[in-house]
Design brief:
The protein is α+β, with helices and mostly antiparallel strands. It has 16 helices and 13 strands. The chain has two domains: 175 residues, no CATH class; 168 residues, no CATH class. A hairpin with a 7-residue loop joins strand 8 and strand 9.
Length: 381
């Protein structure tokens, strides 16, 4: 019998207990990977390379406060600004839905074309969107989800604005980090609202990422000490502002993850202590035969490490296969977009499994170290 086969036989001596240990580690590691993936989804918004070139300027007092449309001529003259468009959130409900998961924005279609440079036209013609004031520009994911096609009507009931929209689909885009949005003419919203001369926010693209901070400062300074001061920030910072409204998500998920790891640690330590306690006589015999402490430690460590590693691998790769194969965007009505189990998250789960394997072997090893041959031989099976 080899050392490896000896360790395997000891690990599988009580197969039911070994199986339950592997299952508990697998479930816990799978849950940990799921929690870390959820935390990443909620706290790190997806971002494209082009997003580093875009800035959003809103009212400094509150996002709910509009900005005067006459600011456009001032912003577009600021050095480094390549394109700028009104960007007003409509927030309507599609069809009979009480909560619609995709956003609708009123934009200047001619100016907006130079802002979303990473997207491409998947169907229809963007010029048709520009020509028809009642048309809209729709993301491919929304088209697929609702079974829409070019020429179909999209009707939205207003929630923030006391008007409804009846839009015709003119073009479809894809290739952005979020292919769900609907964009329509700002002039249509102005007409429906009685031409108030205001916009929700300004969407700005700069020439390079290196000058974005300088442009942000110039935009802020341009309207300082006016009745409509603005707060300009990068697109990512603007998104993170919305995420902060969810509260301290990292703390919540981190606390739950800590409880999961701690519970798993108790299970593995208890299992290994029980398994070693049942073999005190055998370990005493090995001591009498000349096996040294470090060799006995290595047997216990290999057994503990093996069970934890098998369970961890099953849990981690099981979670990866599950969340990769399920369309969570459809199941959550668009709340979760990607839910990507990244290699870093999988590595974190693997580190936890390795730590558990090592930690759970410490207590049994100490007990064996203190055990004399005579005491061990007196132990009942």
């Amino acid at each position: 019998m080899t050392i490896a086969s000896f360790v395997v036989k000891n690990a599988l001596r009580n197969r039911r207990r070994a199986l339950l240990t592997v299952i508990s580690v697998a479930i816990s590691c799978g849950l940990l990977v799921t929690l870390l993936t959820l935390q990443r989804e909620l706290t790190i918004p997806p971002e494209s390379e082009a997003a580093s070139l875009r800035i959003i300027a809103r009212n400094k007092v509150s996002l709910a406060q509009p900005l005067p449309s006459k600011q456009l001529s001032i912003i577009e003259k600021i050095p480094g600004v390549v394109a700028v468009s009104p960007f007003t959130y409509f927030g309507g409900n599609f069809r009979e839905e009480t909560v619609t998961s995709f956003a609708q924005f009123a934009v200047d279609p001619v100016r907006f074309k130079n802002l979303i440079v990473e997207g491409r036209i998947a169907d229809g013609n963007y010029d048709d969107f520009i020509a028809d004031r009642t048309s809209c520009f729709v993301g491919a994911d929304t088209m697929k989800r609702y079974g829409l096609k070019i020429g179909d009507r999209m009707r939205f009931s207003g929630t923030f604005y006391p008007v409804d929209l009846d839009l015709k689909i003119a073009a479809v885009f894809q290739g952005t980090v979020d292919d769900r949005g609907v964009f329509f003419h700002h002039k249509l919203l102005d007409e429906l609202m009685g031409n108030p001369g205001t916009v929700g926010t300004w969407y700005i693209r700069v020439a390079s990422a290196e000058i974005s901070n300088d442009v942000i400062a110039k935009v802020n300074d341009a309207f300082a000490n006016t009745s409509a001061e603005v707060r300009a920030e990068t697109e990512r910072a603007f998104q993170m502002g919305f995420i902060s409204m969810l509260g301290n998500v990292k703390l919540l998920i981190g606390s739950v993850s800590t409880v999961v790891v701690f519970t798993l640690m108790l299970v593995t330590v208890s299992t290994m202590s029980m398994a070693v306690r049942e073999r005190f006589r055998e370990l005493a015999v090995l001591k009498a035969l000349g096996f040294r402490r470090r060799e006995l430690f290595s047997f216990i460590l290999a057994e503990s490490f093996g069970l934890a590693l098998v369970g961890g691998a099953l849990g981690i790769f099981g979670a990866w296969a599950l969340w990769t194969g399920i369309d969570l965007q459809k199941l959550t009505n668009g709340f979760l977009l990607y839910f990507e189990v990244t290699p870093r998250i999988m590595a974190t789960g693997g580190v936890v499994a390795v730590f558990l394997g090592i930690f759970s072997s410490i207590s049994p090893s100490i007990a064996v170290a203190r055990l004399s041959v005579v005491q061990g031989l007196k132990t009942l099976d």
